[in-house]
Every structure is written in C-alpha cells, then in structure tokens.
Amino acid sequence: MFATGCAVGAAVIFLWNRVKKESLDDKTRGNTNLASSDVVNMPVGANTTYIISTSGRPSSMRRYRHLLRDVLKLDVAYIPINTGGGKIETKGQTKISAVDFCDAIRGLRAIGGAISKDIKGAILHELDKVDDIAREIGAVNTVVRENNALVGYNTDAEGFRVAIEQGIRSYSAQNALGVLDIARREGMHVKSAVCYGYGGVTSVVAAVLKSMGIEVFITGRRPDAAQTRAEELGVEVFDSKRHSPDLFVNAAPVTDMPLATIPNFLPALEKCRLAFDHELVGKELVKYCTEKGIFHIPGKTMYWPQMVAQWKLFLKAHVSDEDLKAMQARLETADKMALL
Fold first, then answer.
1. Among the listed ranges 19-28, 44-53, 97-106, which one has the minimum average pLDDT value?
2. Which of 11, 17, 28, 300 gives 20 to 30 Å between its CA and that of 175?
3. What is the pTM of this model?
4. Domain range list for the chain
C-alpha cells in the first residue's frame, strides 16, 4: 500500500506541477493552443487505470486524452511520472529511475509505460521479459504489464523498419517509372547501408537493417568512437575507398547545418542512392538530396508506425480487434481533436 500511495502521489504531484510549468512556457512562447491547463486534464476515478510516461508534453497528453476518453471510450489516464526515490540528475532535472518506474507500474496496476529517454537501457534489467529486438538493441521504450509480468518492447525499431521498407518501395516505383536520373538506375535492391552517428539510435538502425539482410557500416565525427561502436554492434566502420553503400542513414542532429562542415558526412553520403534522416526537418540534407538526385526518406515517416505499434501493445487487451486494426485512424482522429 505504501508503494502504491507513493506512486500515485508522485504521479499526481508531478502532473500538476508539470502542467503549470508547461502552460507558462507555452504562454511565454505565445502558443495559445496549449496555454490552458485543462488541455492536459486527465480525469481519475475509482476504476481508472493508467498508462504512465517519462515525458509529459502537453501536445502528446492532449492527443492521448482524446484517444482514450473520446475516441475509444476507455477509463484510462495517460499521465507523466518523472520523480522517484532513485533519482537521476539530467541537465538539472530529476528523472525517475528504472526501478521506480517499474514500481510505479506495479503499484498503480497500470497498463504499462512509455519511455522517451534516460532509462531505455537501464530498465532492461528490471523487467520480467524483454522482446528479442529490444534486447538486441539494448533499449526499451514501451513496457506492458502482461499477466502481472512487465514486458519490454522497442517500437522505435518497428517505426524505422516501416519507414525504410516504404522508402525502398517508393524509390523502386519511381525507378520503374523512369522518374529518377538514368545514371542512378544501377539496381533497386538495397544491399548495404552506412549509418552516420554512434548514439542510441544507431543500435536501432543496425539491428533493424541487419534483420532485413542489409549490410551495415558506421561512421561519424570521430573515427575512434565509430570504431568502438562498430565493434559493439558487430558491424564494420565505413571506408570510402572500399565501400559503396546504397542507403545512407543519418542518426545525428546535424542535418540542419551545412553538410560540408560536418566531419566525414559527405564522403559517406555521396555514393548512396537513398538517404533516411532521423531528424524531422534536416533541411540541408533535403537540399543536398534534391540537388544530387538522391531519394530522400524523411524521419517523419517512422512517426506514425512507431506510435501505432506502441498503442497496439498498450491496448491489445482493452479494445476490439477492429480498433486495433484501425489504430492509426483512431490516433489521427485524436490528433485532429487535440488541435481544435
């Protein structure tokens, strides 16, 4: 009972403080759509169950409130919970620990929890079971309580896979129609890829591409860091003299700056036929791809697939098969309602 009370108290107190802070921040930025605290109000009753999150962005909370309450008619509250006994200091903020996050799910008897960052790796050791792809990547972003066991998944991987598969299909279709430069019609199959960056995203990239039968190389600003990461993931470091990859994957926050100023970036990109950017904008990469005839796959193409996969996991025991199959449409409806 004490653990449950602490979990509920932490969630409610943090939610209220976060709502006030975000509302003030939004007012300061002049964003009137998010300025009122009722846009993130999550009604809680005696029979309410919960989905908790390490993030509490008002835009997400509005969308999910509409999804759960108005679209699916569920007595479920989506709440941020970001403080706990095992404190983690990140950029001056107190973050919840992996142990406390799991205790909160158990104490609240929650459906599960979403992890945006901080404890994606640490939480693997606190779960009862971890999905194969999440274990290979070494990171969990979705926890679901299944028969009182906590099971970890990584839906970022599903989002990335769908984005790449759709991108390759679109590229192939354009090739077949003769839309792309004739000089670049050397085949429509993607056999190898180079990933720029060696952070957490790179683990997802390497695991997914390898599972698709695509050879992976890694590069980045610092060759020594790229070498270390490549050894960890069981792939090779990119060598412009030996490798001619088909696909370029950017996994670093660099594509809104002049590409020529980014160490080792253009040598990896210039021979590729397709480029995926994990960044949502990446205007300089878009510009370069347009100029050079490289097929660009924007990061936003993994946004909906990732979200759909996560919510199917959360709600598979709580909604009809029809709702599960139409989850993207349900989420899109909720998204539109949140903008009103």
1. 19-28
2. 300
3. 0.81
4. 2-153+318-339, 157-301
Residue with tokens 């996560």: 310
Condensed to tens digits (0 to 9), the pLDDT of residues 218-253 reads 999 999 999 999 999 999 999 999 999 999 999 999
Domains 2-153+318-339 and 157-301 share a fold: yes
CATH number, span 157-301: 3.40.50.720
- Give domain 2-153+318-339's CATH superfamily: Leucine Dehydrogenase, chain A, domain 1 (3.40.50.10860)
In the set 73, 120, 241, 271, the catalytic residue is 120
- Residue 157: CB atoms within 10 Å: 25
* Closest of 159, 157, 165, 158 to residue 274, by C-alpha: 165
Examine the residue annotation and report whether 120 is marked as an active-site residue of this protein. yes
CA–CA separation, 242 vs 238, rounded Å? 8
| 335 token code pair | 């998204």
